[in-house]
Design the sequence.
């Protein structure tokens, strides 16, 4: 399963970024192997509509799950349409910590 | 003569100045008064009348999913994120669309056509014999003020004297209202906020190349800092209106200073002459 986590930096020790569309990086982790890929967000300074664009980007990267903080309605609609399950992480920790919490089923789904 | 009334800070008295100037000039000229503060227009409160109202619309794309092959070209083109193309599904967010028409052009299947979507209204009335009032009003929840301002300005583009009351601030709606104006009156008040935002507004008129002058409204007589700022930036202080309970009371009951106290008409006529001088128009 591919888990996408919004992050302030390009590795697993980076802090989780709470904004989705304007997150500096999307870290996509393969939950079976633990390998990951960091994608710099090309829409970070976009004037508007960055939520749906970022959603499309992680859909194209075939993420199954998203972990982030704040998610706009438009981004949610796009992610829902593609069947990407969205979880909220608000603890201010690292990407690794968010991933652990997800593995322990400790995260709530975005409603 | 296209004369804008702007301010930077809200609540300094733009509409008060615009309404009184238009009222005074309309006694012997044909004047058009344009309410460009389309998110909360208020000039109609000073000039009640029955307007002719029509819808302002923007073209938005309609995608025929029977023809669409989900190639994604429209979504890639749209810099506003208004179209998301998934492998077997399309999502369109009307509120993000800026009606550029690009998606129609890039669609290789010709699956997209445009249909009008209402974003607000435009009202025209004649509350006084010499006065044409044009009011733009953005629908609640609609995010695009600029196209409505564009429409209300078009409605008066050939009129001889046009007074445009802008929104407060310095963002796109203000820039849209100011564009093409011959001169701008910046209304400020003698408070730190008034002065700070006057600085921002003066910066905008300077960058747009529009000659500007200043009105100090609700003056408490201690305007030294504002006067210093105006002197440093070459801005003429065209009129000072004192802080007065009587003026506030006239204003708050929807009346006009120049109607209740006709001696003010002279001040507003003089203001208009100074504006023409600013615009380098013949008197």
Sequence:
């Amino acid at each position: 399963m591919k888990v996408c986590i919004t992050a302030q930096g390009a590795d697993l020790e980076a802090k989780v970024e709470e904004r989705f569309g304007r997150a500096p990086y999307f870290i996509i982790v393969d939950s079976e192997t633990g390998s990951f890929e960091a994608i710099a967000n090309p829409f970070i300074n976009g004037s508007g509509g960055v939520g749906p664009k970022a959603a499309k980007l992680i859909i194209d990267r075939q993420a199954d799950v998203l972990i982030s903080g704040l998610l706009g309605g438009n981004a949610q609609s796009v992610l829902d349409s593609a069947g990407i399950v969205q979880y909220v992480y608000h603890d201010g920790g690292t990407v690794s910590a968010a991933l652990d919490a997800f593995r322990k089923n400790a995260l709530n789904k975005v409603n | 003569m296209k004369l804008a009334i702007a301010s930077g800070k809200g609540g300094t008295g733009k509409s008060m100045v615009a309404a009184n100037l238009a009222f005074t000039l309309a006694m012997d000229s044909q004047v058009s008064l344009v309410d460009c503060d389309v998110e909360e227009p208020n000039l109609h409160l000073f000039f009640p009348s029955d307007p002719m109202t029509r819808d302002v619309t923007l073209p938005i794309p309609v995608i025929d999913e029977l023809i669409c092959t989900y190639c994604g070209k429209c979504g890639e083109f749209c810099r506003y994120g208004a179209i998301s193309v998934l492998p077997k599904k399309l999502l369109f967010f009307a509120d993000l669309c800026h009606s550029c028409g690009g998606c129609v052009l890039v669609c290789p299947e010709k699956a997209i056509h445009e249909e009008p979507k209402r974003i607000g209204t435009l009202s025209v009335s004649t509350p006084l014999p010499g006065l044409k009032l044009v009011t733009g009003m953005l629908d609640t929840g609609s995010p695009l003020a600029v196209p409505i301002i564009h429409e209300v300005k078009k409605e008066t583009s050939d009129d001889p004297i046009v007074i445009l009351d802008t929104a407060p601030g310095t963002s796109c709606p203000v820039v849209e209202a100011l564009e093409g104006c011959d001169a701008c009156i910046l209304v400020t008040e003698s408070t730190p906020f008034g002065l700070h935002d006057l600085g921002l507004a003066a910066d905008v008129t300077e960058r747009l190349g529009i000659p500007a002058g200043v009105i100090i409204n609700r003056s408490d007589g201690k305007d030294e800092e504002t006067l210093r700022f105006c002197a440093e930036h070459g801005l003429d202080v065209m009129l000072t209106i004192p802080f007065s309970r009587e003026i506030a009371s006239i204003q708050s009951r929807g009346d006009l200073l120049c109607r209740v106290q006709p001696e003010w008409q002279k001040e507003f006529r003089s203001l208009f002459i100074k504006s023409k001088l600013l615009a380098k128009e013949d008197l």
About this structure: Chain B has a mean pLDDT of 96. Chain B touches chain A at residues 75, 78-82, 84-86, 89, 91, 93, 96 (CB under 8 Å).
